[in-house]
Amino acid sequence: MSTPKEDWRTLCSRRKQKQNENIPPEWRIQVPSKDVQNVMDVPYTCGLLSPEELALTDRDLDDLVADLTSGKLKSEDATRAFLKRAIVAHQVTNCLTEIFVDRALDRAREVDKYMEEHGKPMGPLHGLPISLKDQFTMKGLETIMGYASNIGKFADHDCVLVEMLYELGAVPFVRTNVPQTLMWGETQNNVFGRTTNPYNHHLTAGGSSGGEGALLAMNGSPLGVGTDIDGSLRIPSAFCGLYTLRPSYERLPYHGAANALTGQESISSVLGPMSHSLGSLKLFTKALVDARPWERDPLVVRKPWNEDEYRLVDHDRGKRMCFGMLWDNKVVKPHPPLKRAMEMVKRALEEAGHVVIDWEPLNHVDIYRVAQTILVADGGEDYRRDCEVSGEPLITSMSPEKDAHQIDLEVSLVKMLTGPPRSRSAYELWQLHTEKRNLRKAYLDHWNATAKRTGTGRPVDAIISPAVAYTAVPHGLNYDSFYTTLGNAMDYACSGFPVTVVDPEQDMPHDPHDFHNHEDAAFYKLYHHELFAGLPVGLQLIGRTLEEEAVIGMTEIVDGIVKDYKKRNNLQ
Amino acid sequence: MSTPKEDWRTLCSRRKQKQNENIPPEWRIQVPSKDVQNVMDVPYTCGLLSPEELALTDRDLDDLVADLTSGKLKSEDATRAFLKRAIVAHQVTNCLTEIFVDRALDRAREVDKYMEEHGKPMGPLHGLPISLKDQFTMKGLETIMGYASNIGKFADHDCVLVEMLYELGAVPFVRTNVPQTLMWGETQNNVFGRTTNPYNHHLTAGGSSGGEGALLAMNGSPLGVGTDIDGSLRIPSAFCGLYTLRPSYERLPYHGAANALTGQESISSVLGPMSHSLGSLKLFTKALVDARPWERDPLVVRKPWNEDEYRLVDHDRGKRMCFGMLWDNKVVKPHPPLKRAMEMVKRALEEAGHVVIDWEPLNHVDIYRVAQTILVADGGEDYRRDCEVSGEPLITSMSPEKDAHQIDLEVSLVKMLTGPPRSRSAYELWQLHTEKRNLRKAYLDHWNATAKRTGTGRPVDAIISPAVAYTAVPHGLNYDSFYTTLGNAMDYACSGFPVTVVDPEQDMPHDPHDFHNHEDAAFYKLYHHELFAGLPVGLQLIGRTLEEEAVIGMTEIVDGIVKDYKKRNNLQ
């Protein structure tokens, strides 16, 4: 006799309750009323963190790591400070899933003890608190990953990433929220609910690594790990003002992590760092690659960290580079703040002696159609099965209230391109692969052909593009992943970096243009400069496949130039 | 009004006729009668090649390349000699498809002219004649690839490999035969017919790169390029006494080549060198990788040639290595000559100070089932369509006469494992990927765990194994690809290398063992020491994924040790 199956609602609310109980009572704060849209200053005003803890959690990653690996700063102190700030962030954005304060502090003490006994750090991530998207399995914890059906399933192993992070000395200290199915650019599920954007709780933090986005925006973690199959690192990073790296397929170890669409290998999900600090990109990637992840995860490419590529040996050592600016991918035209950000970057780069030319989009609609068709080639079977187990319904809109928005986006362009969901055969999938492969070849040739226009003797060194055509939008409205899909479908190594914030005075609506399609028209109408005031505006830098080292190197240069430019011109 | 479709038989015989006409009349030889089983000495006896040409075509690749790249030897002379010898080989084994004597000689003269004008070689393959499997598209030629439907389709581009070979200075000079569908370990199709083994025309040269196998065995080419999705480089190399390298997925540029199962990317077909000369492995692989193939083929891994890995930095610099000997994969037990070859290698390695331990097979039947199921996941749709166009029938047996063999292999183990062919859904394919991924992880952990047994402090440096459980067999009987599939499914970089020849006096039948399955029993019965006398016996060396450099380096060491051992002990 089996016990009668519990209703999914009961399951979920009990699990949410358990999560609440994991918050130490003394760390509860007075949550501001819903009238307060921007909660970014709550860590400073709530009184939970001491001035030292605030200063510590506000520090740049490089300094923090230097002090941790030299033993100047105890991991326990750093971990406690970030735990507090993370739990503050959680209380105002609902960004966390797993909260395990004692375990995290125990680990921090273990690391501190190692330093005491050996007089040297455990590894390059010694003592560093790291937050993890709710896919990275940790022994003894559940990996809910947005599904009620995962409640009560405790992992008997760490995934390879976590195994390696431990060996490198890190302190995994919280796990962060995701959308059901993982396949949304927003973050909401039936177990843990919705994550909101700390700059404005009416807006999404992005997704699917949206828990990381909100947490990191509030400095609730110095470094987080998210994943990206269609923009899931870059979207929340752009919406929350963060740096990120979307590496190429199989550069970093994913084995053993939970995932949606398991076994789908046509467009592989990848993992990467997200952080307030630029230094996170090299620190995280190099630490993992130097530890030879291909000896743990059979899919990881055997490609050692290449310091020459990082020093831009293929890009004139960074001296005079040429960037292709993707002003408009001809699918959705970027909102005014994105345009201004690109103009600012262009001017800054040119003043610094680099070249900026227009990037011509090629086959973008075909690329999106093929990619999006591949991602639904199972006709939704994967989601259906994950929901069926618990009986929870499949979430079909990220909008808090149905019809809350006046903009008609019901028939999305993606759905128009991919047609109604249906199960494809293996043979049909193979044809999509062939089409994708030919699109990759065409894009490669197109890129190489820019050598004729750059004036540097080389093709464009990297493309600079919006990550999303807009800044954070109201919940339920983030339909467009077209700027990010390019990287996933072509498998380009991409970074995301913050550039500026929306300035309603400068970022007035543009005059209507000749709309590319109904979605472009809808997104045009969505722009209201007052609504978006103060929001982070990020861009992405797109390099070649498996060119992570150079993408990091170029991002550091571009970021430095933009920061100098802003300082010189007194810009935000 | 369309013209009535021509019967496929007419199409094929006219195409075969055209092939015959491409043989210069003065290069026709007196073909020995069918009573002569072994045609290996025909180049020496037929009178077509001068003593100088015979000496030139018998030279080791390293010498040949040194003289070509220094300008000491003219490419035209080398190319003419190899063309002659290739056409001799063709007349006795039917190994060629495309014959283009004038075009090849023109290219050779172009290369010679370059040397004259510039005083330096065009590239590392300067002037070297290279034969190509009938998949590597060349502008202006058809790529029949075993299908009548490809007759009359002339390519308007070179595939990336050919494009790069030209730039490296090579002289593509013939193309070689394949089986219809490419998915057999033998070589026969309705257009060009069957390729036979030059050691015995009753036996297969292997496949699917069997045209290369027969051609290279007779020194009709110094270096050939084949492909491998399930053993197609290693099987003909083992059956014909050659060296080969099966690189990991996407190390070398396949883009633009014709292929079967186009778009199937779960187990990617790869290309690699085949040759009489050991030096071919490094020469070919390094030349291509150094030319940055990822700038031409978007799927190629951006991994520069790593000379440290070639010098075995991860393997004690080759000083004291440990090899795992796969005596029996528990699916089909190797024939006596293979066992003797492994024993010889073991003794030779041990005398040279290396360690040899037994390799324990793990999950081999599961690995084969998953791999073989993936390869028929389209339910045969790909083959069906390629046959439909011309109306030619799908070849269902490689046997020259039905029921010619007394051994019942009709129900092959592969078919029993994969079940009747049926079209799988994308979702089902994803589940196979998950299973494959877990099998790869299990095999990786299994390999790493050998560190406890090797005595070197490291896991086994490489596995040594038969490529096939037997030497060349009568046409229609090469059913077993289980020793090669391991490399394709786990994506291990593997080499093939010749060890000895069948010696009927030493290689007496073994007593029957406890058969693993009915196929193992059938292959046991197949062994007749007199039938196989004098045939080449080859093994493979299996390294880690994307470890091509180290696999080449280790193969060079093992080969040298075995050659020394044979010389010291006066063995063949």
Automatic annotation (TrEMBL), chains A, B:
GO MF assignments: hydrolase activity
Disordered: annotated segments: 1-22
InterPro entries: Amidase_dom, AS_sf
One Pfam family recorded for the sequence: Amidase
Keyword Hydrolase: yes
Domain Amidase stretches: 77-551
Keyword Hydrolase among UniProt keywords: yes
Keyword set, alphabetical order: Hydrolase
Residues the record marks as active site: K133, S208, S232
Similarity remark: Belongs to the amidase family.
Name by which UniProt lists this protein: General amidase
Organism of provenance: Coniophora puteana (strain RWD-64-598) (Brown rot fungus)
